[in-house]
Amino acid sequence: MLRRSVKRTRVTFGDRVFWILYAKYVSGWRTLLHTLHPDTVVRWHRERFRRYWASISRSRRLGRPAIDRELRNLIRTMQCANACWGAPRIHGELLKLGIEISQSTVSKYMIRGRKPPSQTWRAFLSNHAGEVAAIDFFTVPTVTFRVLYVLLVLEHDRRHIVHFNVTAHPTGAWIAQQLVEAFPFDTAPRYLIRDRDGKYGGRYRRRAHSLSIDDVVIAPRSPWQKGYASHCTSSARFDATLGKRRRFESFRPWALAGGSSPGFSYRYSFLSL
Predict the structure, then answer these.
(1) For the segment 48-83, what is each residue's pLDDT rounded down to a tens digit?
(2) How high is the pLDDT of residue 265?
(3) Fewer CB within a 10 Å sphere, N or C end of the chain?
């Protein structure tokens, strides 16, 4: 059986006299009585104590103090008068005038444009996709245990393979010649993305420079920076190794000169030349 840890309070004779007089001389005393649980009273007390100390510890003004209105107007006037100036330049000019203010504060009070100042990254890629191409290699093992190196040149605009060739000994001179065959006359792109393979030697770089092509080298161990070319070669390598149906229907490899049907893999297309 449970026993009370605190004994019940005994009502004394004085308490009885007090309540008798209180009920006799106070009208409507029954409406003033409320039955409360002791835990409720304790909870109310703790909540009031918490609010009291929160009101004392809370500062009157949150955040950094606001700067003068004149200084805010000066920052916005300098921004409107000089459209090319950013927060660092305006901050430097204010320091020259003897106004001590941080660069973050200047950036905070500058006028924010509704639209970005320039085109977005996606719009930039879409507008310049016609000027970007990529070059990449992948290997194909043969029945006689030889390794063939397949060169692909892919345009990013339509994801179209403009040129491909196969060799057993890729050299810088051979790659330079393939570059001329891939972009005859004035069809060379502005940018050509490639990896850091040692096969691209000095002759390749000189040939790219003669065609007015900017040779863009990706970061080390970052094949994803080649974009569609890396996905195309990896998918072709997968098909050539396992002999399965290719996974990159969107690249339209059968659109090559002579073309092969979508059902053929890259391995059969290259080895049938």
Answers:
(1) 888 888 887 776 666 677 788 999 999 999 999 998
(2) 35
(3) N
pLDDT in tens, 187-214: 999 999 999 999 998 999 999 999 999 9
Strand order of the β-sheet with 160-167 is 160-167, 147-155, 132-141, 191-194, 214-217
Give me 182's structure tokens.
């891939």
Point out the residues of the chain with pLDDT beneath 70.
1-8, 59-63, 115-118, 121, 236-273
